[in-house]
Batch of 3 targets.
Target 1
Amino acid sequence: MRILPEVIKNLFRKPFTHKYPYQPIVLPHGFRGDFSWDREKCVFCEECERICPVGAIRVDRGDVKKFEVDMGKCIFCAECEKACPKDAIRLEEKITPVEIERSRTIRKLQ
Ligand code: SF4
Ligand code: SF4
């Protein structure tokens, strides 16, 4: 019966959860979210690919330069952002869109 006061108290409390995406949420400052990459700044040095602990980044510095990030693997540690000598990577303060199919988590950035 000790649980009864707790139950009654919680009936009148606001919920701890947010109804996202139906209600907007305020993200805390420094939130590591959606991945952005700036081709103009990138020098294809591959430092981000080397430092990524989960192998989510692929840099191809061949004739046709390419940059890919697999958001299905990314753990949002921001090591790539810190390591980039050109400030080309940002983990934005916004939520990453969810992909249902595994094959669609790889972003080929240009
Ligand atoms: S570390 Fe920065 S400059 Fe180097 S390949 Fe990655 S994004 Fe480009
Ligand atoms: S945030 Fe971390 S896990 Fe994600 S791509 Fe960068 S280094 Fe890799």
Note: The mean pLDDT is 92.
Target 2
Amino acid sequence: MQQPSLFAESEIQLKNKFPSTRYQGSKAKFADWIWHEISHISFQTVLDAFGGTGSVAYKLKDNGKAVTYNDILPFNSIIGKAIIENESVLLSESDINLILEERKNIEYPTFIADNFKDIYYTDDENHWLDIVRYNISTIKNEYKRAIAWFALFQSCIIKRPYNLFHRKNLYVRLMDVKRSFGNKKTWDTPFETHFRNFVHEANNAVFNNGVECHSVNTDALNVDSKFDLVYIDTPYINDKGIGVDYADFYHFLNGLVYYDNWANLIDFESKHHRLKRQYNIWSDKDNIINGFVQLIEHFENSILVFSYRSNGIPSIENIVDILIKHNRHNELRYSRDIKYALSDTKSKEVLIISYPQ
Ligand SMILES: C[S@@+](CC[C@H](N)C(=O)[O-])C[C@H]1O[C@@H](n2cnc3c(N)ncnc32)[C@H](O)[C@@H]1O
């Protein structure tokens, strides 16, 4: 007999609470401000073209908009399914127990244990990941599966030094030294504990805003250009020309999604077994300006809202110049100072709101 769910549905569905996430360039801290700056604009359909954690898409969903979330990384688009597209499906306590159970009659694949020894997690943790990833892949309902993926991705991120997969640095976590950064207790908390917490957070985020929302997974330039408003938060290149390569920073999570084909996608020359690189205009400082031109032309009939930083490449002036050349009316808004990181003292968060004329 199925165990009764420990979550009372009504209690959960009232919460509408965006989960805690750790992600480079997340706008979670700015989402209220962004909404404050655009709430007067008349629009119903909206695309979050570079969705990431979904923090802005979620704020728009919370305000009754018909939201389409997009991100080029498959793991992110599953997060979009779990908390943006999903209107009502939750993971119950018995679902969680099934996901976490290692069953005797199953011969689990061992790709992570075989290929990632000493890279990101301990042997026991790699074994746990192989089991749980497999169990998640057998869940039939796509939204339940998405919530389970969400919890697995967040658990993987929270246990990593710097919350990234950019280096083979398990040793940083295991060294018995006094640290000035990071949180060893969080790193060493069992996967299972994190996983259960993140399922609860995702359950608390699920709600129905009365209109259909969607999650898609493609290059922003391939999404239909039919939206009243498009929110654009591209990967950021700073004034030194250093950008954030999201595919590289989070390759392990995409590998989990492509588990059965992972061996063909890995660059085995790299010590940390990243995925083979693919060109992305948003991390090419010499060409990124053309990315903006293409976006502006692709979404020519939409109101465009860019999140940007005052010391980015290209400069705000460059972007506004292109917008003016495309015959658009533009307004700038500067946020009050919220620092991203200790190292980043100079840049301010900016919104460029651009209307077709
Ligand atoms: C600055 S982050 C967005 C952060 C997001 N607003 C949030 O609050 O979490 C940029 C995102 O763009 C995605 N991305 C990179 N290239 C892309 C492309 N060509 N099309 C769509 N998304 C892309 C990255 O995977 C990353 O999640």
Note: Strands lie at 45-48, 66-70, 214-216, 229-232, 303-309, 328-334, 349-356.
Target 3
Amino acid sequence: MDFSTTKYTEEQEAFRVVVREWMEENAPLELSVPEDGRALDTDTQQLVRKFRRKLGAKGWIAPSWPRHLGGAGLSPSMEVIIQEEFRRMKLPAIGDNRRHINTILVWGTEEQKRRWVIPALRGELLTWQNFGEPGAGADIAGINTRAKAHGDDYLINGTKAMITGRFDPDFLLTLAVTDPDRPRHYNLGVFMVDARSPGVTIGGPTLLVGSERNIYLDNVLVPGDCLIGGLYQGWEICQTILQQERGEVSFRITESGTIDSIQEYLRKERGS
Ligand SMILES: Cc1cc2nc3c(=O)[nH]c(=O)nc-3n(C[C@H](O)[C@H](O)[C@H](O)COP(=O)(O)OP(=O)(O)OC[C@H]3O[C@@H](n4cnc5c(N)ncnc54)[C@H](O)[C@@H]3O)c2cc1C
């Protein structure tokens, strides 16, 4: 009996052939991706970044998004085919969680869209979602990271935990308390923080199940025009992001697979 749930049309299968040929020609095949969640080495990161730019040039970082935003204008089923072909090639995740892009489209100024949306979809930028903290995960409104006004700019201090990423990020979409005296949920702001700013340190545990990191923000100076939305709109902006996370037709360029990597690790290390 055939239990398969997916049947593709001839046109879709023809598209798959095109995608497969392109991947075989362009994807970096000799990547060194440790099975645990360690950060990728510099050479590997460079190879993947180069590949991201090729993908971005084709609009395949967001294949079903409109072309004017940097997508390829394809149907969702074509997007799924691209994703399946990524999986087949066993490529590592290409680093960007992408949810910040929709969020900036909703809440950002035109200038912020120009700075962060188009380059992200061209494969030029990597951004991490920098929300969770050691004492505030499920209860994200309970964060302690603080953004204080400093002239027209902000100084951010705090520690973030369990932030996903194996690449050196370019930006950290950071949630911070902007006024501790305001009521909960009305006291938060969201900032695009340049990850190479003085005071940003990325460290933390190496986990078998993933690539989560701690991020330490020590008096990080963030220009005023990197605030997304209003100074107290962070909670609403979080909802946009988390809605994407839970509800989008999600195209996440695949990882070698958490389950696969755990099995591989156990086979090698434990002989089981
Ligand atoms: C693989 C992975 C990747 C992640 N990547 C990112 C990332 O890229 N960026 C980012 O910002 N964060 C990231 N996180 C953090 C993630 O957002 C938090 O882990 C998540 O919000 C849960 O928080 P916590 O782990 O602190 O658990 P806790 O908040 O400590 O919750 C533990 C348990 O207690 C329950 N609980 C908590 N509070 C209450 C309450 N008030 N009432 C009833 N039950 C409660 C929870 O439901 C849960 O079952 C990642 C986490 C994981 C595991």
Note: The longest helix spans residues 10-26.
